[in-house]
Amino acid sequence: MQIYLPIAEVSVNAFLLLGIGGMVGILSGMFGVGGGFLMTPMLFFIGIPPAVAVATGANQIVASSFSGLLAHLRRKTVDLRMGTVLLVGGMVGAAIGVRIFTALKAVGQVDLLVTLFYVVFLGIIGTLMFFEALSAIRRARMTNPPRTKRKRINWIHAMPFKMKFRASGLYISVIPPVVIGMCVGVLSAIMGVGGGFIMVPAMIYLLSMPTKVVIGTSLFQIIFVAGFTTLLHATSSYTVDVVLAVLLLVGGVIGAQVGTRIGSRMKAEQLRILLALLVLLVCGKLALDLLLRPNELFSLQILGGL
Amino acid sequence: MLRALVLWLMLSVPAVSEEIVLGLSHDQVGITATFDGTNVLIFGAVKRTAPIPSGAPLDVIITLAGPPVDVDIRRKSRRAGIWVNTDSVRATGVPSFYAVASTAPLPLILSDSTDSQYRISVRRALLSPGTTGKGADIPVFLEALVRIQARDDLFQDGQSPLALEEETLFQTSVDLPSNLVEGQYTTRIFLLRDGVIVDTFQTSIDVAKVGLERWLYTLAHAQPLVYGIMSLLIAIVAGWLASAVFRAFQR
After folding, report:
1. Residue B4 lies in a domain
2. Residue A50 domain flag
3. What Å distances lie between residue A35 and A53, A259, A278, CA to CA?
4. Neighbours of A112 (CB within 10 A)
């Protein structure tokens, strides 16, 4: 069944969109990731204009993270104070990101920007995850696994403007969380992702937050930043396609439930290796598009009626 | 006296011996939620007050042109190992859609001067726009424009056959793809004998989003903030509903 997307102005198969949503949903359920970093490139591959894919991705993330956040709020595993500090940085970052996005869209370089960001970040994250998971498997095979002790990073704790974060049991400067929030905000605006894959490691390794509040807090921050990004894209480039978002979401939510079930039957290290390979695969495909000579060197952008 | 008047009338009125009577399968195309392109049937007849003239056979050309748009044509080249958009040409007033159908190949029935006057062939219809851009290779960019639009079925050069029966009844059908620009689509019909235009006729088809598609598009552009908030709410509710339904289904 073909469906015409009013904002993207292309006709696509509705079941294809539900399928993509479902597939990304299964993966996000299996691996416990938002999946935005897989969803947006998939939309590029099926011919959705990148600007629409990124803006709609932000919209879709808000909705798919919503039920997750509710669950964490009920379990009280959200550090609202830390979330708010991250959020302030995130909003500033998102505003900068959307500004860059709109400016580059005008000169026709937005596809390049988005693809480059994807190649770089997917490449780094995929490689790190792959080796981390490999060493985890190796460690599990050893009879007496040596404990890796988490190091405290001293220069981060020596900064001014200290604040108490009771839920995380931290007394640290607000500068690192604001900066981390800002970086994730820029990524969210340019890549159409929630940024959990940057946020979570940053919270654990840079801020030394306890693992149990990390996911809830990052969801809290992601929902507001992605919501803010959606509104910025909607008002500055009119590229949020609500029909596309809803179709992806319905597939995604159902897929996530299935994925959680599959994920619970597999070993964590194997899952991480699989996810790492998947991330590297998407990264490789995008990188090839940049490196190989395209079949058609020219591209058109219709600027609207006279 | 009366006889003189009749004679005067006959002499003064230009001798239109062949005239076009036209019909369209529809003069409006609505882009709905399930729109996947459409097909417009253009048919008509040649009305005559005199018998079919002997000599050169009658030829018919039908064109259908979408509303003019500005297009940025960009070219990629290799910079620091990766393929990047490097230079661009802006073409103004390019028809967003153009189809031409004729009873015989255009070069056989259409003289170059008539073509340049009426801009009938795809090449003429597209080469008319103004272009701005640096570099002397603007023709290369325009070639690319024609090539890409033809690949996307937005330029159709004689793909659909035009049937002419008894030098009187003609019909063709034009496939409109789904990625149409909204606006007035102009269809022109030319009757030719021996390369000379005998009669022309022009009418238009209105292409517009309708219903929900129209409403969403208008809202997104006129009230972007309201649209953005609505999109978020709809998505949140849809996501919540889908998970609730799925959970109920599992029990």
Report:
1. no
2. yes
3. 14, 12, 11
4. 18
pLDDT-derived band at A305, boundaries 50, 70, 90: very low
Q: Are B58 and B191 in contact (CB under 8 A)?
A: yes
**CA count, 13 A, side-chain hemisphere, B204:** 10
Residue B1: inside a domain:
no
User: Within a domain: residue A146?
Assistant: no
Q: Which amino acid is at A236?
A: S
Q: Which long-range contacts (CB under 8 A, 24 or more apart) does A100-109 make?
A: A100/A186, A100/A189, A100/A190, A101/A51, A101/A54, A101/A189, A101/A190, A101/A233, A101/A237, A102/A236, A102/A237, A105/A51, A105/A237, A108/A301, A108/B72, A108/B74, A108/B85, A108/B88, A109/B84, A109/B85
Q: Give how many domains chain B has, as a whole number.
A: 2
Question: In Å, how far is A232's CA from the nearest CA of chain B?
Answer: 8
Chain B residues touching A293 at Cβ < 8 A: 78, 83
CB distance A66–B216 less than 8 Å?
no
* Alpha carbon separation from A297 to A217, A257, A284, B70, B145 (Å, rounded): 45, 42, 21, 20, 11
The CA distance from A123 to A162, in Å, is: 35
Residue A35 structural domain = 2-141+151-290
Q: Name the E strands within A31-139.
A: none
Does some domain include residue B5? no
Among chain B residues, the shortest Cα distance to A227 is held by: B232
Residues A254-287: pLDDT tens digits? 888 788 777 777 777 777 788 888 889 888 988 8
Token pair 């004729």 in the structure block, residue:
B102
How many residues are listed for chain B in this entry?
A: 251
| Cα A200 to chain centroid, rounded | 11
Residue A305 lies in a domain: no
Q: Are residues B188 and B202 in the same domain?
A: yes
Domain that holds residue B227: 210-251
CA distance A235 to B223: 8
**A281 bridge partner residues:** none
Contact B72 A300 (CB under 8 A): yes
| Contact criterion met (CB < 8 Å) for B232 and A290 | no
The distance of B248 to chain A (nearest Cα, Å) reads: 12
Give this prediction's pTM. 0.77
Q: Are A66 and B240 an interchain contact pair (Cβ–Cβ within 8 Å)?
A: yes
Whether residues B167 and B246 fall in one domain: no
Same-domain check for residues B77 and B132: yes
Taking only the tens of pLDDT, chain B with its 251 residues reads: 556 655 555 554 444 578 888 888 888 888 888 888 888 899 888 888 877 777 778 888 999 998 988 888 888 888 888 888 888 888 888 888 999 998 888 888 888 888 888 888 887 887 655 666 665 677 888 888 888 888 888 888 877 788 888 888 888 988 888 888 888 999 999 988 888 888 889 898 988 888 888 889 888 888 899 999 999 898 888 878 877 787 777 66
Element (H, E) at A163: strand A162-165
The count of domains in chain A is: 1
